[in-house]
Design a protein that fits this description.
Layout: E1 3-8, H1 16-30, E2 34-39, H2 54-57, H3 65-75, E3 78-86, E4 89-90, H4 92-100, E5 113-120, H5 129-140, E6 146-154, H6 166-177
Parallel strand pairs: 1-2, 1-3, 3-5, 5-6
Antiparallel strand pairs: 3-4
């Protein structure tokens, strides 16, 4: 059994990227894993100050919700990030959270597999490339980790508009295999 932490960065309730989170979670639970979904929607997460104190203390000097999420990420075997695509890039909420996970860098983190789930109004295959590249850059900082898979749900604008989109089954299947 693995401990799976899913971090959803959509500001919209019942969003398409959140639907991908739920599908991944269903698959992971079917495989017998422990799953927790954290939505950044109602969290207070301030910008990283770039002070690098966390590199010595493994704790951020900012006392907000990011510290709790970072603690959960430290002990998770699998990390899953989900983001809507805005202007061909991950959401600002997701980028801010990635920056605030900086205390993990010098730590004895548990995760090895990282997944990235995205949704966008555009449906061309190259739409999530820049966002994926950003997550790959984050993952490369963790030598034991790898980007194990991505799912893109294209052609969706209104929250929950395509409840049978093929990307949902793809996310569920990744969850089963994580």
């Amino acid at each position: 059994m693995k401990k799976v932490l899913i971090i959803s960065s959509s500001p919209r309730k019942n969003s398409n990227s959140e639907a991908l989170c739920l599908a991944f979670a269903d698959g992971a639970r079917e495989a017998g894993h422990e799953v927790e979904i954290v939505s950044l929607r109602d969290k207070t997460i301030n910008f990283c100050r770039g002070c690098f104190a966390c590199q010595k203390t493994q704790k951020c000097v900012i006392d907000d919700d990011a510290s709790l999420i970072c603690g959960k990420a430290l002990t998770a075997d699998v990390l899953v990030f989900a983001s809507p695509i805005y202007y061909y890039e991950m959401s600002g909420q997701m980028k801010t959270m990635l920056d605030r996970l900086n205390p993990l860098y010098p730590s004895d983190y548990a995760f090895t597999d990282v997944y990235f789930l995205t949704a966008a109004a555009e449906d061309e295959d190259d739409v999530p490339e820049r966002a994926i590249s950003g997550v790959e850059g984050w993952v490369e900082c963790f030598e034991r980790a790898r980007l194990a898979g991505t799912v893109f749900m294209g052609g969706v604008t209104v929250a929950g508009e395509r409840p049978h989109h093929p990307a949902l089954e793809e996310a569920r299947e990744l969850g089963r295999k994580c």
